Structure formats: structure tokens, C-alpha cells
Amino acid sequence: MRPALDLLNGVGQMGAGDVVDLGCGTGAMAEALRQRGAGRRVVGVDSSPAMLAKARSDGGYDGLQQADIVDWQPRDTPGLIYSNGALHWVGNHEAVMPRLARMLSKGGTLAVQMPHQNKAPSHRVWLTLAEERFPGRVDRMGTPGVMAPVRYEDLLAPIGQLRLWETDYYQRLTAEPGSHPVRRYTESTYARPVLAALDPDEKADILRRYEEVMHSAYPVRADGTVLFPFRRMFFTLTV
Questions:
Q1: What does the chain look like in DSSP terms, one character per residue?
Q2: Stated pTM of the model
């Protein structure tokens, strides 16, 4: 929850209108958004019916919408669009980010947090190995990604007041014996599109080679853990 709360703490002001949790998942941030919203309606948006069902059962939102981010339209003008760890799964940020900003009321804020780990060995090696071993089999556009910070600044600073920052979060990772902790951490998230393109034997080959590199990049300590740095990008845009 630390990155999500850090993003919310970075929101300086809101306009009149709803607080929208874009990519709300199961609703973990509903209560914090309600407190920060100071009486505004809090609306959760997600594409997953299962996630929305859990959020609905917890009762944290005033309203819920099922929608893909690229197609979503607010029912009422938002004063805050808050998106924690969701927009990196959506392509075409050159169009998506300005589109979201245009939905806001005057003085409203778009607040975004996205992983920015793609150049680190934990993420880059998946694509490097796949291209070396099975050229052309993995579509790089199928993996999550963000633009360079300067591109967001060029894109969004003309629209409003932009604050942009990055933070490295250190996590102590563990895994069952025989597998590297970073492999277990990334194979179920970032690496899903990579592994989905391969057959079982090819997956086994990639996993073995990936673990070899991870042992060099992120040495396992005597207790079986890795202290793993994970970078995240944040920005707030007030229009």
C-alpha cells in the first residue's frame, strides 16, 4: 500500500466533482480516498467483474463502473482521477493521458503511479532472453511499459501544473527452495505476456536461463532472501 498512499499524499488539490479510483481492483484505497475526498462521491472503475464484486461487497464506494480504461467515460465530471498501478497496462499514453486530463473539472487533478522497472535486469532480461532464444515470438507491445519521464513532461506540462517524481521501494523477497525470489515475483506479473507466447519446453528453457542471470544481478543471501529495489513513477497534473 505504500506507493498507493504516497500517490494520494502527493495530491495537492481537487476540483469540484467525484473522486474516481481508475483501476480500483478490490477497493483497497476506497477508505483513504473517501477521507481525502472531504465529502465528494468516490467511484471505483475496473474492467474485472470479480474485482468489482469484492469492492462492492466491502461497500467502500458510492458507485462502481465496469469499463476498460481506454473506453471509460465518467458519468459525472471528476475532481480527481486517481490511478495507482493500472495505466502501465494501457498503451498509447500520448493519447490516453491528455484524454483523462480533459475529463477533469477546473482545478481537478490526474494522479498516476506506474511501475518504472522495465530497464532493470528483473524485467529487461525476460525480453532479452526471449528475443535471443525465440526471435519474433514475443510481442514487446504485449508487455507493460511506460514512457521516459521527459516524454510525460513534454506531453503534460502544457496542459496544467505537473509534478513528476520517482521512488525506489526495497522489498525483501523470498521463494521456495530451488527458485530465485525475483523470478517468482516477476513471472506472474510482468513476464505473463512473454511466457504466454511460448510452449512448455520453451518456458522451461527461458526460466532456467533467467534464473542464472538473476543470481548474478540479485544475489540470494544466506537466509534465502533478496533485497529487491523496485522503481515507481508518479505524477500529478492539475488543470
A1: -HHHHHHHHT-----SSEEEEET-TTTTTHHHHHHHHTT--EEEEES-HHHHHHHHHHT--SEEEE--TTT---SS-EEEEEEES-GGGS--HHHHHHHHHHTSPTT-EEEEEEE--TTSHHHHHHHHHHHHHSTTSS-GGGS-----HHHHHHHHTTTSEEEEEEEEEEEEE---TTS-HHHHHHHTTTTHHHHHTS-HHHHHHHHHHHHHHHHHHSPPPTTS-EEEEEEEEEEEEE-
A2: 0.87
